[in-house]
From TrEMBL:
It comes from the Bacteria. The lineage of its organism: Bacteria, Bacillati, Actinomycetota, Actinomycetes, Micromonosporales. Residues 13-289 form the Amidohydrolase-related domain. InterPro entries: Amidohydro-rel, Metal_Hydrolase, Metallo-dep_Lactonases. Belongs to the metallo-dependent hydrolases superfamily. It comes from Micromonospora parastrephiae. This is Amidohydrolase family protein.
Amino acid sequence: MTPDDPVERPGIVDAHHHLWVRARHPQPWIDPRTMAAIDADFTPVDLAPVARAAGVTQTVVVQSVAARTETPELLGIAADDPLIAGVVGWVDLTADDVADRLDRLRAGRGGQRLVGIRHLVQSEPDPTYLDRPDVRRGIAAVGAADLAFDLLVRAHQLPAATRLVRDLPQTRFVLDHLGKPALGHADLGAWSRDLRALAAEPNTVAKLSGLVTEVDATSWTTADLRPAVEHALDVFGPDRLMFGSDWPVCLLASSYLRWVEALADLLGPLRDDERAAIWRQTARRAYRLPAS
C-alpha cells in the first residue's frame, strides 16, 4: 500500500451512490441481459463493507427513479445509518408546490439529511427541458431551500445546463459524471468545450464519478479515464471536484475499490490539500455535510 492510497487517508466522502430494493422501487432501466451485474437489490448492508474497505466514512445516496415514495424511504434509511450523511432526492420540478414538498420531506423522518434534489434529465426527450419556465421555477425553489441541484445530463445537454446555471446564479449545481463524456472515442472536442463553458459559472461543482461505465467495461485502464479527469481538473480545479463511486452502477465495469484506486492514481500528481478537496472537502461544502 502506497502513501497515496486513499485507504490510508481518513474521511473519504463518497458523494454519489445508489440503493434500491426492486420490490419497492422497480428499476426499469436495468436490462437483465446486459446489466446482470446490477440486476439485484442493493442495501446499506451491501454498501458498508465495500465503502469502508476503500476508506469511506461518509456517503451521499442519490435517487434513482422518479417516484415520490423513494426519497422518504432513503431519508429514513439515512436516519438509521451513520455512514449515510446526505440524500439527494427527487421531487416533481413542474409541480406548483415544490417548496411545500421540500418542507414536507424535511419535516419527515431523516429530513435533516436531505441535501439536494435530482431529476433524470438525461432521459427527457424534450431538448428544451431545462429551458422550460415550469422546470426552472422548480429548480429555483430547490435553490431557495438551500439545497443543491444535481445535473444528470448527457454531453449534448451541457449547453442547456450552462444556460440554466447562468440564469440561476443563487442555486448551487452539482454536475454528475462530468456530463458523461464518450470516453474511448477519438473526438472529445465538443464535450471539452461545453464542460469548460459550464465550469466558467462559479455556482457549479462536478463529480468525478460514472466514468468507468463510459469506457469498454471489459478492457478499460486508468489511461482511458485520464483525458476526462485531467480536463475536469483544468476547468474546475480540485476545489470544485468531488469523488463519487456511482455504486452499484459502477459494478458493470469495476469493483468499488478498483475505481477508487484508479482515481487515486490519476490524482497522484496533485498536492495533499488538492487531493483532500476531491476526496472529501468539496462534497462537504457543496452538500453542507457535517464533518465525520
